[in-house]
Amino acid sequence: MASEAEKTFQRFAAFGESSSSGAEMNNKNFSKLCKDCGIMDGKLVTSTDVDIVFSKVKAKNARTITFQQFKEAMKELGQKRFKGKSEGEALEDIYKLMEGKDPATTGVTKATTVGGVDRLTDTSKYTGSHKERFDESGKGKGIAGREETTEKSGYVSGYKGAGTYDKKK
């Protein structure tokens, strides 16, 4: 039976890693766990501390850590986070922070479906020059709707008698 800490470790280890079995954790997810569980507080434990500890406990050329190595890392971070407590107590407190935590997806961008968007993208409500850019169905006319096409006849705009110069009266 896996402990609460181990379950949390597995949830974070597999987070965003479709191929991961949850048995090993990479540095990205390790710092996410430390951040989401409040182990990294930005004062006693910073992201730099977390990276250093991760590098220290992982095998030389490995990119991930096992739960065993994770426990080592937590012992070390526990000493930093809960100064003055014994290693065991600090570790307990770290595990308490981790209990039942899931990788947070706060701050992940979602597509907005806020009421204003429909109104802003409804081409039938456009006015002025913007209205010219779309046909009745709301489909854009492309370059024809954007560019002022100029006549290259040599006459100034607004001249009504274009093409009448050579005509005999």
From TrEMBL:
One of its GO terms (cellular component) is cytosol. It comes from the Eukaryota. InterPro entries: EF-hand-dom_pair, TPP/p25. Its main location: cytoplasm. The keyword Lyase does not apply. One of its GO terms (biological process) is positive regulation of protein polymerization. Residues 129-151 have a biased composition (Basic and acidic residues). Keywords: Cytoplasm. It is found in: Cytoplasm. Pfam families: p25-alpha. One of its GO terms (molecular function) is tubulin binding. Residues 119-169 are annotated as: Disordered. Belongs to the TPPP family. This is Tubulin polymerization promoting protein family member 2.
